[in-house]
Amino acid sequence: MSRLIIGLMTGTSLDGIDAALVDFASTPPQLIAAKGTVLSEPLRAQLLALQSPQANELHLAQLAANAHADACANAVHKLLAQTGYTAADIEAIGNHGQTIRHRPECSYTLQISNNARLAEQTGISVVGDFRSRDVAAGGQGAPLVPAFHQALFSNPMQKRALVNIGGIANSSLLIAGQPTTGFDTGPGNVLMDLWIGQQQGQRYDKDGAWAATGQILPDLLAQFLSDAYFALPAPKSTGRDLFHQAWLDHHLAQRSDAPADVQATLCALTARSIANTLRQQALDAVYICGGGAHNVTLMQMLALELPQTHVCSSATLGVDPDWMETYAFAWLAKCCLDRVPANLPRVTGAQGPRILGAIWPA
After folding, report:
1. Answer CATH for 145-317 from 3.30.420.40, 1.10.10.10, 3.30.559.30, 2.40.30.270
2. Using one digit for the tens of pLDDT, what is the confidence trace for 198-240?
3. 65-69: long-range contacts, CB 8 A cutoff, minimum separation 24
């Protein structure tokens, strides 16, 4: 007997929709197949525009939620066609949705996608809105993946961390005999993507090739790291509400640095802000997932920042770095269906364990 759940994820980078099909009938679960679908430019532009307040945004947000659900349904249909399964074979879809506001200090976080529409178009039950219950319990609502990392990747023989580098970077510390901890370390790819988009019209710096041509500017790096977020104690989480174009413009005002040097320094900011949270742990290994795992320059910088620690891709653990977070939201959907708490209060700051998510039946 199989127990098949699909995880869907669109992250802060807004580069596409990732879909993963996971079978939870075995231990450990089996990631059967995964597929990425590029977001259309109009939908990406809609979602990016909603990151900032604008006129008529309630209407625009609902239109974007509909379009997001349509894109998710298309991703599900493509994954099913790839694998030969039908909707009747799938127990549920775990859909993270697209974060357009993350304000836990105001007691809310908002991920949009019309999950009723997604259930209607696929004929599969949908689990979504994973973060709101944790926020209602006084938590940050993020990161949620440390509980998943703990469940599947803890190893009593190794002091390890898993670091997801999407638009925002987050870490999970898995040390035997100690409670799992984790938080958003700061920007992952988001500022690098903004800068190369502004300077070269590209969505991202493939392999970190442009950053590799520049020089790290120590004074600019120190200025970036002076942001108050980096000194905040955990639990903490962040997103485009803080690390956005205006943040970048503020720090680069009155400067005339070579664009490639700025890109190299932004890459170093991601590496340094991650390493600063890990270097005191004497870790054996750090496993990187998310799009940042493909940034060769960033991976080299991380290795230099953590010379006593083995820094490698999560592929070493048997999970492609592109699918780790999507896999996590399939797991979170399963936890919701089974009425199992899936947050870690020590990570998010919630008052206690909570069942996360809401269900839209097929």
Report:
1. 3.30.420.40
2. 999 999 999 999 999 999 999 999 999 999 999 999 999 999 9
3. 65/97, 65/112, 65/113, 65/114, 66/114, 66/117, 67/42, 67/43, 68/10, 68/43, 68/97, 68/98, 68/112, 68/113, 68/114, 69/113, 69/114, 69/115, 69/117, 69/118, 69/121
